[in-house]
Structures are given as C-alpha cells and as structure tokens.
Amino acid sequence: MSLKFKCLAVALGFFSITGYAQSKKTIVPKTYVAAKTTTPITIDGDETDVSWSKTEWTDLFEDIENGIKPKYATKVKMLWDETNFYILAKMEEPHVWANLKQRDTIIFYNNDFEVFIDPDSDTFNYYELEINALNTAWDLFLTKPYREEDKVVVNDWNIPGLKSAVKVNGTLNNPNDTDQGWVLEMAIPWATYKTSFFDKNVPADKFWRVNFSRVNWQHAIVDGKYERKKDAEGKFLPEYNWVWSPMGVINMHEPEKWGYVYFSSKEGKESFTIPQDEKVKWELYTLYRAQKEYNQKHKIWAKSIADLTKEPIVVDSKILKPVVENHASGYNIAVKSPFSNQTFIIREDGKIISK
Asked: Span of the secretion signal (predicted)?
C-alpha cells in the first residue's frame, strides 16, 4: 500500500503511520517567480491565452522519491492578479481517462493533478486540491500534516469561487486511439486563504510554499472501459507520483519540502533566492525527524542535540547552535539564526514559531 493510501487511512482513523524513513539525499526545493498579469485570463483549458505566452514553464516534473525522469512529461505555469492565483498544467498522456464525477470523492483513484499550498510556511493549516480529466475536484483543508497521527482533514471544506477547465488533446475515455494529453487551467481566489475578514493576504512580492503532484496509474481495458490495473492477486498496482519539487520520500505531506513560489509585482523577469532563514528552518525539521526516530527507538525524547546528530549543523558556512529543551508534553528545539538574529523554535508537533 502506497503512502498516498496510508495517509487517507490515517485521516479516516483506520491506523497510524509509525515509520519516518527519509532519503539521505539533501532536498533543495524548487523555486518559481509568478508574474502579475494585467490581461484577463479566460479559464477554458486553452494554453494559447496571451497571458500564458508571456511566462515560462516550470522544470519538468520528477519522480517524488528519487528524481528520476517520469514516463510522461508534466509542466506548469503560474500567474496572479489581485483576485486569483492562476495555474496552467500540461500533461503528456497517451490514454486520457477518468470516471469519477462527484465532487469530493477520492479523486486520486483516477489519474489526477494536485495542488498543495501553505500560505504562511509553517506546515500547519494548508490546502490540497485534486482534479481529474473530467474536471472533478476534491478540495481539502488540513490542520496539520498526517505525520502527527491525528484526524487532521476537513473534507467538507470547499474552495469558494474556484474556476477550472480541462482540454483533452485527443478523446477522453476512448481506448481505441492514442491521445497527446490534457491541459488543466484553474483560477483559485485569494479569498480562499483569508484567515479573517480583514486579512490582506494577496502575497504581492512575497513567497508561499507550493507543490504540485501528478498521480498516474497503469491501466487495463475491461469491457471497453479503462480501469486501474491489478496484479495476479487482484490488488491494484501502485500508482506513480510525479511532482514539481521532489520530496525524497513517497509522501506529499511534508510541507517544509515544498517549492517556493514568489509572486512578483514588478514588470519583466525577476529572480528569487531562498532566504537563508528558510535554510535554518530546514535544519530544524531535520532535527524534528531525528527526534521522531529517537523516540521510536528509545520511547523518550532526546535531551541533547548530540543524541540526534554527531555532525556540525552548517548553513551557508555558518554553524548553527540549536538547543533542546524537554518538558512534560514533549520538547522544543531552539536556534538563533546567524543571518537575522531571529530565534526559531520547533515543537514536538512540528510547528515552527519565531521570536
């Protein structure tokens, strides 16, 4: 069973995830500068819109775990204005099919495209949107990542004002021909992410943590219709997970690894460099995961950094000096950034606060 299904089971309270295996490869999130558009965008699934011609595609998607080039290409463009976050996804696919038509069903049982957004970059209170080739949506709000083993999903939450459209370059659900693929275009209102009536949350000249995932299944044709392929024992074969910013593990629900989308209000091309304080936070999450593993093994939390790592923790040639503080319900790990002098604290539940 893939972690995609394990996450769903956790959300429904069936069982808990107890493994925290992580890739030893350093994960460096992708970055993208989304330009502000002044030209209206018609959401019709057509990539030839003038606004889209003025911006660049992301890198091609990679395998979620190992970064290997997938069988079929996927790429994205992003734009924004004062009302919406615009996303254009183009997916190569010789067999475009979908059969889920009811909103908020488990859309990743079909091939789909998924959007993950964490506006304030604290890994809590983030958003997920899944859409298939029938333009059927499943939108979710998550109060915290699945790894905290709580019932964290608000499944009846919907994106008000969501606009999306699909254009199939070929024929949908026709196994008798070969398709080129499908294009998904969407406009997500900024109002979706407001935390209060007076919240001014349009991220002009700011970054949000964002990632995209494409779920792709091997298929079989039964009675002239597509369905997910099964093995000799009648179990569904595992899905492929292709993403914009690779995670190092088969789990999208580690928001600290998502990409950085910077919403530029300037005309012309603009570059974006990941802030050094963000790299300090990455190291705190490495310690957080080490604490998880230590607790599984010893049934207590580590009381010193030396229990978690024997290597110096270095960011851009600066040595970090984190400190562990244990308390009745868990622990805090605090570190002072050598770049901003701001102190960052990660708690036992994985939330980072600053002071």
From this structure: 1-21
User: Which residue ranges of the chain lie beneath pLDDT 70?
Assistant: 1-25, 150
Query: Three-state DSSP class for 120?
Result: coil
φ, ψ dihedrals at 323, nearest 5°: -130, 135
Helix (H) / strand (E) containing 343: strand 343-347
Rounded distance, CA 245 to CA 234, Å? 33
307-316 per-position pLDDT tens digit = 999 999 999 9
In this prediction the pTM is 0.92
Tokens found for residue 305: 């950094």
Q: What is the pLDDT of residue 13?
A: 39
Residue pair 137/186 in contact by the 8 Å Cβ criterion: no
Strand order in the sheet with 330-336: 323-327, 330-336, 343-347, 352-354
Of 62, 115, 32, 33, whose CA–CA distance to 247 is shortest? 62
C-alpha 165: how far from chain center: 21
CA distance 46 to 185: 7
Distance CA 293, CA 20 (A): 7
The mean pLDDT value of the chain amounts to 92
Residue 7 main-chain phi, psi, to 5 deg: -60, -40
* Contact in structure between 258 and 232 (CB atoms under 8 Å): no
Confidence (pLDDT) at 200:
87
Measured distance CA(14)–CA(8) in Å, rounded: 9
| Strand 259-264 to 31-36 pairing | parallel
Of 231, 182, 173, 218, residue with least CA distance to 75? 182
Best CA proximity match to 31, nearest among 52, 59, 55, 54: 59
At residue 326, the 3 state secondary structure works out as strand
Look up residue 312 and give its two tokens. Answer: 């110096």
Per-residue pLDDT reduced to its tens digit, 89-129: 999 999 999 999 999 999 999 999 999 999 999 999 999 99
